[in-house]
Amino acid sequence: MELNEFLEVSILFGYYKNLLSDKQKEYMEKHFELDYSLSEIAKEYEVSRQAVYDNIRRGIKILNEYEEKLSLWERDKKIVKDLKELRNNFSIEKLDKIIKNLDYSEEV
């Protein structure tokens, strides 16, 4: 796994980990947050290395599916981009536009 993919999975895990099965969450937490190897996880849970690998791969697939459907990370990246732009070139109109885009209560 390349560094960019590893970072992306770690970020998505932060957003969606509570939507995974307990086993996937535990394996992925140990692997991505605590830097356990697949073999270390397998030994701790008394399963095969392949079982750990398969669970983590399924977990990654699920995280990507959640992001495709919910786009929480994408939304947050856009907010940060808009705020940085606002910081560099402030105007009340730009601030109002950002607030309008974030104010979901008007849509209800």
Tell me about this structure.
The chain is an all-alpha fold and 108 residues long. It folds into 2 domains: 3-70, Winged helix-like DNA-binding domain superfamily/Winged helix DNA-binding domain (Arc Repressor Mutant, subunit A, Orthogonal Bundle); 73-107. It is built from 6 helices and no strands. It has helices at residues 3-16, 22-33, 38-45, 49-70, 72-88, 92-102. Helix 2 (22-33) packs across helix 4. The longest helix is centred in the middle third of the chain and has 22 residues, at 49-70. It is elongated, with a radius of gyration of 19 Å. The mean pLDDT is 93.
Key traits:
mainly alpha, Arc Repressor Mutant, subunit A, 6 helices, 0% strand, elongated
In short:
This protein has 108 residues and is mainly alpha-helical. The chain has helices at residues 3-16, 22-33, 38-45, 49-70, 72-88, 92-102.
CATH H-tier superfamily of the largest domain: Winged helix-like DNA-binding domain superfamily/Winged helix DNA-binding domain
Question: From the coordinates shown, what is the CATH architecture of the largest domain?
Answer: Orthogonal Bundle
Shape: elongated
CATH class descriptor name of the largest domain: Mainly Alpha
Oligomeric status: single chain
The name CATH uses for the topology of the largest domain is: Arc Repressor Mutant, subunit A
Report strand %.
under 5%
Mean pLDDT: 93
Write the element-wise H/E pattern from the N-terminal end onward: HHHHHH
Distance from first to last alpha carbon: 42 Å
Extended strand count? 0
What structural class is derived from the secondary structure elements? mainly alpha
Radius of gyration from the alpha-carbon trace, in angstroms: 19 Å
Low-pLDDT segments: none
Number of helical segments with 4 or more residues:
6
What is the makeup of the main sheet? Answer: none
Helix content: over 70%
